[in-house]
Amino acid sequence: MRLGVCIAAHGAPANDFPEERLRQFFALSAGGHHHGGAGGTNLAELEREIRSWPRTPENDPYKAGVEAVASSLRWLGYDLIEAGFNEFCDPTVEEAIERLIAAGAETVVVASTMLVPGGGHAEILFKLLDKVGAA
19-30 and 43-51 are packed helices; what angle lies between their axes, rounded to 10 degrees? Predict the structure, then answer.
């Protein structure tokens, strides 16, 4: 049995992402709007722009840290390891799990960096695990 490990983390916008675009994203998402008005930016487009922004350890130390934690598991003998993020950066948790399966994982263990029971992020993760039949 090949085991895959997905480190599920929150995610954060890159610190050099344009502030105006980030404000626009939060305004649209807080207001429940999916479009920015006539000719405006779509919320999904903004989310994709934020997630796919080029990352470095300097502009996103959080992502670099999560990836370092994931990589450090290799010394335990795990070779199929991916980090996935709930929001703000790629890959998503779903994409990370899909990558592990595509690489040959027969079983995937998801370890969250957000383990506080009852917290919103843990609940999102539990719903995702339920959706893929892992809970």
Answer: 130
CB 41 within 8 A of CB 23: no
User: Any residues with CB less than 8 A from the CB of 62 and at least 6 apart, and which?
Assistant: 9, 10, 11, 12
What are the φ/ψ torsions at residue 126 (nearest 5 degrees)? -65, -40
Neighbours of 96 (CB within 10 A): 25
Rounded-to-integer distance, Cα 7 and Cα 5, Å: 6
**Residue 64 pLDDT level (bands cut at 50, 70, 90):** very high
d(CA 69, CA 34): 35
Q: Is the model's pTM score more than 0.70?
A: yes
Q: How far is C-alpha 34 from the chain's CA centre? A: 20
